[in-house]
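FORM 7B: Structural annotation worksheet

SECTION A. Query
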Amino acid sequence: MRKVAYLLGALNRGGAETLILDIFKEKDKDIRFICIYRKEGNLLNDFQNTGVSLVKFAPKNKFDFFYVFHLRRFLMKKDVDIVHSHQLIDGVVSLLITCFSKRKAVLTFHGHELKKSFLFRLIRKVLLKLNDQNIFVSNSQLKYFEEKNKINFSRQILYNGIDFNKFKHINNLREELGINKNILLTASVGNFTSGRNHLFVCEFLNRLYQTGIQFIHLFVGAKNVTESLVYENCINFCNKNKLTDNIKFLGTRTDVPSLLPQLDAFIYATNNDSFGIAVIEAISCGIPVFVNNTEVMLEITNNGEFANIYESDNIDNLFTIFTDFIQNRQDYIHHAVNAATIIRNQYSIEKHLQNLKNIYLNLYN
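SECTION B. Predicted structure
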């Protein structure tokens, strides 16, 4: 049995944290997990309920130069074989506590990490070179890293896994928001960052509004304090075009798995996602999904087999496809239900864990 320690910052809701939480819930007889975290967060109880050993191990202060030494000694006592991190800062710690030992360092990259400083890029390149394994969540993401880092490094592609058992009706969204059952209900899920093009979705919805189509669209996601203009531009656009009755900003929701199956359609626009968990989750619910033709979205939807692909930044093209959906909804729903079956098998947390276990075991072959 291999012992794997996960290094985490705060146990708050996020893509990586949710993935790790689902891995811990699934477990595997060949792997024993330990979770090392620095701060509590809103997922603390969820992590505790998995039964995985949780250890808070944080620096005493920002000048605690012995933090790495103490953590290294702790992991030696626990006979940890592999240290797995999901953030660059944890990747540095992971490398320091595994160097000159038999333990292996694994780092999963979850984004493209654009607009970073020279020092950040240098550290990333060092980690890529020295890690025992670097994991990327899509072919598209790996291609980007290969182009930006002209070095040899260990690499594996491992698609994110999703616990589809969570996607059940536990509330009535239309009743909660006072939406008539005959009104078209659509949504987008994702925080307001420059990585997503929520403003394009607003502009498209304005086009629908002008044609007299009745709809309610929900934006589920938080305002990013470091990129507040992304959110504010959407709000200002909706106010200017009198869309406030048709477009609702719900902020962060913890019940997305319950929300998605209740939609009539899911609309998404990305600038530089490295995977697209929200898109996969929506497809898995058997609802028609509309997403732009970036490289990664074509990859995860098998060139549009599982979703309806429109040209990026092309409102006319999306409008044409979407109005065809409105006129032929049963055909689109039938296709969506078939796609859901395939997606649930291809991106399940069970399959993810099996592939992850193979990566771990191969480190010692």
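SECTION C. Observations
The CA atoms of residues 273 and 313 lie 15 Å apart. The longest strand covers residues 2-10.

SECTION D. Sign-off
Analyst initials: ____
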